[in-house]
Amino acid sequence: MPRKAASPSDWVMRSTPLQGVERIEAWFQDKAYAMHRHDTYAIGRTLAGVQRFNYRRDQRDSLPGNTMVLHPDEAHDGQAGTSEGFRYRMIYVEPALFQDVLGGQALPFIEGGVSTDPRLAAATQSLLQHVGHSLEPLEQSDALTELAHALADVSGMSRMPEKGDYVAAQRARDYLHANGSRVVTLEEVEAATGRDRWSLSNDFRTFYGTSPYRYLTMRRLDAVRRMLLSGTSLATAAAEAGFADQSHMSRHFLKTFGLTPGRWRRIARAMSGA
Questions:
Q1: What pLDDT is recorded for position 5?
Q2: 155, 110 in Cβ contact below 8 A?
Q3: pTM given for the model
Q4: Are 63 and 11 in contact (CB under 8 A)?
Q5: How far apart are CA 246 and CA 262, in angstroms?
Q6: b or e along 24-54 (b: 16 or more beta carbons within 10 Å of the residue's beta carbon)?
Q7: Distance between CA 215 and CA 232 in Å, rounded?
Q8: Domain named HTH araC/xylS-type: which ranges (predicted)?
Q9: Contact 46, 116 (CB under 8 A)
Q10: ∠ CA 221-225-230, rounded to 5°
Q11: Mean pLDDT, residues 179-198 taken together
Q12: 198: exposed, middle or buried (C-beta count within 10 Å: 0-12, 13-18, 19+)?
């Protein structure tokens, strides 16, 4: 399994997540992340250097000023395109937040993952400020609304709602949030939504960009990260978040974030001075 090549000069700064949005700023000298994927949009801007990544079976290079838009559940990695390293800012946005704005349309998709479109540059300006700048909730809400519409416009997507049951997908999402720390059966979700499992899976992917199980796994990983930052052991965090055991959690963590839980915690603690 590919691993990140460590560099003593690499750093990552994170803001406190606010209402479904996480913001980071980072610098890497060489290899940054192994192949991984999120159930969120990853939207960012390269600040310096050449930011290279593999995405949808091709290699992409993002230059300073470019806007990156990686769709939920699409595998990607990250590394420097030159020996000078690269610096970037990124936000991770839950698809549900864009759905609140778009009202049940299919998720916008930006071909290629890298854009020079000025509409996206303008729409991401507030959200991609330095992570030390705290966004007020209303400021973030306004910025997300602008970004959702910009993504829809740039992607050229139809303004007509996608076929599917948006209400059923919402009910499934709410049920997973309420029961994420235990095993959830398909029969339970079917009963909670009134939708058969195959139709519901299509609904969920259409409106939230990933499968119900992967969405549940990501919520568990969110809980693990919060616990690790508070000093909880890896084994305890895995159990309390709903994973079968520590190795089960660690496999999902590496696949999702491109870092082992232990390495992620060391970087996070180093940046916080802990």
A1: 42
A2: yes
A3: 0.77
A4: no
A5: 11
A6: bbbbbbebbbbbbbbbbbbbbbbbebbbbbe
A7: 23
A8: 170-267
A9: no
A10: 145
A11: 89
A12: exposed
Beta bridge partners of 87: 27, 48
Q: What pLDDT, on a 0 to 100 scale, did the predictor assign at position 2?
A: 34
Phi, psi of 30, deg, nearest 5: -140, -105
| CA–CA distance, 132 with 140 (Å, rounded to integer) | 15
Written as six digits, the tokens of 207 are 């409106």
For 97-101, 228-232, 246-250, which range has the lowest pLDDT when averaged over its residues?
97-101
* Tokens, residue 162: 């996608």
Question: Which residue, chain included where needed, has tokens 């959690």?
Answer: 249
pLDDT tens per residue, range 53-84? 999 999 999 999 999 999 999 999 999 999 99
Percent of the chain with pLDDT over 90: 69
CA distance 257 to 249: 12
